[in-house]
Design brief:
Helix content is 47%, strand content 11%. It has 174 residues and is mainly α. A 3-stranded antiparallel sheet has the order 5-7-6.
């Protein structure tokens, strides 16, 4: 059961990131489609109400309701290595987009990795921009690529560099 709650925590992060990056409020069905999580609409609703209780998202009174991120949510999306108690060799701060890539790799690229094109499709960014961010994350020892494949496949180097709530179910695999 613990694995399920870890996956749900990662999905909550994806929902929050999607809402922070969205220029307009979204319906549950749009959020479900945007995160490609393969979870039920009921689970998305549960996560959204949990995020609402924490003051990270707002719900409109429309039917169906539209969801948007609060101002407080934008500040929680940026990760800092210093927050997790490690000394952090680089001390770098991940941007919102880099955080999104990390979460997607934790969620979808655990086993075999993902290509830059697949990641770009999931985050809604160009392949060129996504690859630029991935190579930057690789220089900061956040991700690794299997460059022997064409195109390279990307994976998380280790989830130990990230706060517990962002580690997902792969934290015991490292």
């Amino acid at each position: 059961m613990q694995g399920r709650s870890s996956i749900m925590a990662t999905t909550a992060d994806l929902l929050l990131i999607t809402l922070v990056n969205s220029s307009q409020p979204l319906r549950v069905s749009e959020l479900k489609r945007a995160i490609h999580g393969g979870i039920q609409k009921k689970e998305v609703n549960t996560l959204l109400y949990s995020l609402q209780d924490r003051g990270l998202v707002e719900r409109t009174v429309e039917n169906p309701p539209l969801w948007s991120a609060t101002v407080a949510a934008a500040s929680t999306v940026v990760l800092e290595n210093s927050d997790n108690g490690n000394d952090g060799d680089q001390g770098t701060t991940l941007t919102r987009d880099e955080h999104t890539l990390v979460i997607i790799l934790m969620e979808h690229g655990k086993e075999h990795g993902l290509s830059g094109g697949s990641i770009a499709a999931l985050v809604g960014k160009s392949v060129a921009l996504t690859n630029k961010m991935l190579y930057g994350l690789e220089r900061n020892n956040k991700v690794i690529s299997r460059s022997r494949t064409n195109p390279p496949l990307w994976k998380i180097r280790s989830t130990d560099n990230y706060p517990t709530e962002c580690r997902g179910s792969s934290s015991s695999d490292s």
